[in-house]
Amino acid sequence: MSKGTSIKDAIKLWEEKNPGVSSAEAPVVKLLSQQPFIVKMDASLAALAKVEHLGLSTNQIEKISNLQGLSCLKILSLGRNYIKKIEGLDAVADTLEELWISYNNIERLNGIECCKKLKVLYASNNKIKAWEGVTSLQALPLLEEVLLFLNPLEEKCSAEGTWISEMSKKFPGLKKLDGKPIIREDALDEGGAE
Q1: Distances (CA, A) of 167 to 139, 141, 158, 176
Q2: Residue 1: which pLDDT band, with cuts at 50, 70 and 90?
């Protein structure tokens, strides 16, 4: 098995494909589907000082790490990797607004609660089986959009017809669930009364 592409080499390749743009100054850097795949988020990420949207999707990353120095990061895209748990987000907790982690191996969202500015979480196609796997989302006061379809918990509750109502009760600030607006009965009552 090859050792994979390093972050340093992936950044160099990105700069070659984006002539005249410094990765240290770029607001959006996408290191997607590198060949060979990136397997580790190493300290070279600190070179991306001004990045607001970091794309590392479709690689073979197993662990979220080395986000120190990314003080402008708002969107972190880690979909289609091998991540099993949420960790290492403390370094970007004050700026991160969107976390895209669909198509991984996550069973619980514990570790996300440090991201108080998080508004959007895409975590579909993971392995969340029980409500305990999502309770940490209650600590996120600004969270308004969540994508959790095709997790065992969602599939079970949707089959029972309780998914939307349970999520609405547990997370009253949610405005959008699995790509659809949440329409609450109390909002209909307020809007319908004249």
Answers
A1: 14, 15, 11, 10
A2: very low
pLDDT bucket at 186, cuts 50 / 70 / 90 = low
Q: How far is CA 8 from CA 4, 46, 47, 73, 78, in A?
A: 12, 10, 9, 18, 17
Q: Which 3 state secondary structure label does DSSP give 144?
A: coil
Question: What backbone torsions phi and psi does residue 9 show, to the nearest 5 degrees?
Answer: -70, -40
Give the span between the Cα atoms of 96 and 68, in whole angstroms.
12
* Tokens standing for residue 159: 């089959």
Per-residue pLDDT averaged across 101-125, rounded?
98
Three-class SS state of 38: strand
How far does Cα 116 stand from its chain's mean position? 14
Q: What per-residue confidence (pLDDT) applies to 191?
A: 52
Average of per-residue pLDDT values in the chain? 94
User: What is the distance of C-alpha 125 from the center of its chain?
Assistant: 12
Secondary structure of 78-89 as H, E, C letters: CCCCCCCCCCCC
In angstroms, the CA 73 to CA 84 distance is 22
- Amino acid residing at 153: L
Task: Quick: pLDDT tens for 80-97.
Answer: 999 999 999 999 999 999
| Of 104, 106, 117, 102, nearest in space to 147 by CA | 102
Assigned token pair, 72 = 């402008």
Task: Using DSSP, state whether 20 is helix, strand or coil.
Answer: coil
